[in-house]
Amino acid sequence: MIFEIKLAHPAKNALDSTLMAYMLEQLREAGGRPVLVTGTGNAFSAGLNLKTVSGFDGPAMRMFLDRLEHFMSAIYLYPGPTAAAINGHAIAGGCVMALCCDYRVAAADPAIKIGLNEVALGVRFPPRIHAIVSRRIPKQHHERLILGAELVDPVTALDLGLVDAVSEDPVQSARDRLAAWGALPQDAYTATKRDLRGRGETDLCPAAEHKKRVDEAVDSWISDEVKNRMLAALRR
């Protein structure tokens, strides 16, 4: 049986501590069953809730980035099949969340924007999220999508490996794929997924290296220049 999680947040399903806590609770409830994640309105998720994040000082930002990494790692390392039905915009953290899923299918709507604009905002990826992004995007497109911070339409996202399929009905397409993968021997699926991705967060970045790199990332996230860019993005 497929367990469906629907993102619902008034700010285009922006990720904040409340929404991440809800998602983690839902993943625990799913208990290894196939999971489908989709959004509401015209967004899958437009990224982090910049209104909240722009107000963080250093300690609060460190706590938030740790929580964000734990959240993304939980999706990426979830033992059962996962699929993202990208019904609308999937930008920055929203795109990362989709990349964490085993299968990603986007709606056939050229107005949708998908991509990672962290560099354009002036921030560094937290190390475990950087590891996930680097693994899930084809290496030949790293410069365009990660360094270049380009936002693309669904068909281009398919060409560049950001998504696996484009569909007029992404939710049904995701359900079909999950039904197929859910019918596979699940012990083998879980063990093989673990072999591909690791057993825990430290497999994405060892603890000693992680602390240093998160500290460096925090410095970029709390700079006045970045906070001004966040506030400018909110005004658009």
Topology:
Blueprint: E1 3-6, H1 17-30, E2 35-38, E3 43-45, H2 50-53, H3 58-76, E4 82-86, E5 89-91, H4 93-99, E6 103-107, E7 114-115, H5 118-121, H6 127-136, H7 142-147, E8 151-152, H8 154-160, E9 165-167, H9 170-182, H10 186-197, H11 207-221, H12 224-235
Helix pairs in contact: 1-3, 3-6, 3-11
Walk me through what this model shows.
- Helix content is 52%, strand content 13%.
- It contains 12 helices and 9 strands.
- Strands 1-2-4-6-9 form a 5-stranded parallel beta sheet, sandwiched between helices. The protein has a 4-stranded mixed beta sheet with strand order 3-5-7-8.
- It has one domain: 2-enoyl-CoA Hydratase, Chain A, domain 1 (Alpha-Beta Complex), CATH 3.90.226.10.
- It is globular, with a radius of gyration of 17 Å.
- The N and C termini lie far apart (41 Å).
- The protein is α/β, with parallel strands linked by helices.
- Helix 3 packs parallel to helix 6 (127-136).
Helix content: 40-55%
Q: CATH topology, anyone?
A: 2-enoyl-CoA Hydratase, Chain A, domain 1
For the record, the CATH class is Alpha Beta
Question: Cα-atom Rg, whole angstroms?
Answer: 17 Å
Could you give the order of the helices and strands? Answer: EHEEHHEEHEEHHHEHEHHHH
Query: What's the total count of β strands?
Result: 9
From the 3D coordinates, which CATH architecture would you assign? Alpha-Beta Complex
Distance between the termini: 41 Å
**How can the largest sheet be summarized?**
5 strands, parallel
Strand order of the largest sheet: 1-2-4-6-9
